[in-house]
Amino acid sequence: MFSSLESLESVAPLYTAHQLSLEQFEAFCRVNPNLLAEREPDGRIKIMCPVSFDSSGYEAEFIADLKLYARAQGGAALSSAVGLRLPDGSVRSPDACYVSAAKLSAFTARDRQHFLAVVPDFVVEVKSPNDDLQDLESKMRDTWIANGVRLAWLADVENDRLWIYRADHSVELVSPLDRTIDGEDVLPGFTFDLNLLS
């Protein structure tokens, strides 16, 4: 049993010792619909905690603007409830993402009832107070960009900064969060006012 809050914090997130296949993981998620979980490339399952009130609000700001963009341009804007199968064998749930209509056209309606094997064009991750920044930086580089995401933003609103990760492996720091940034050539015409996060 845990004797203090500090010892509890040292085990979050939790990783299972057992490895699950993609099919087993999907079945596991169906019978545990309220559990936040991702599958590691080696089949271990990462159990995560819900995010803070503020962090959820920041995620919603990104999702709202992405949804408007998707309505106008086609494609899909997705929340952290989605599970995406990546080429490295993992199943991940970005805080917000966009998948182009061109990519989605390769899938049937039946395919879309499962964890879709698709790499988003664009991903947003929002650092919550219980997140480790180094883990998130690694996720941006070694998961999202390494698997083919073309543009990714990591927002650390508490510390008034955001990093832009690009497919060429360049990383740009934006601080303070007092300007409008855009989707570059990945999301032509998409802009996001970082002042919405204050």
TrEMBL record:
SUPFAM superfamilies: Restriction endonuclease-like. GO terms for molecular function: endonuclease activity. Gene3D superfamilies: tt1808, chain A (3.90.1570.10). Keywords: Endonuclease, Hydrolase, Nuclease. Residues 22-194 form the Putative restriction endonuclease domain. The keyword Coiled coil does not apply. It comes from the Bacteria. InterPro entries: Nuclease_put_TT1808 (IPR012296), Restrct_endonuc-II-like (IPR011335), Uma2 (IPR008538). This is Uma2 family endonuclease. It comes from Neolewinella litorea.
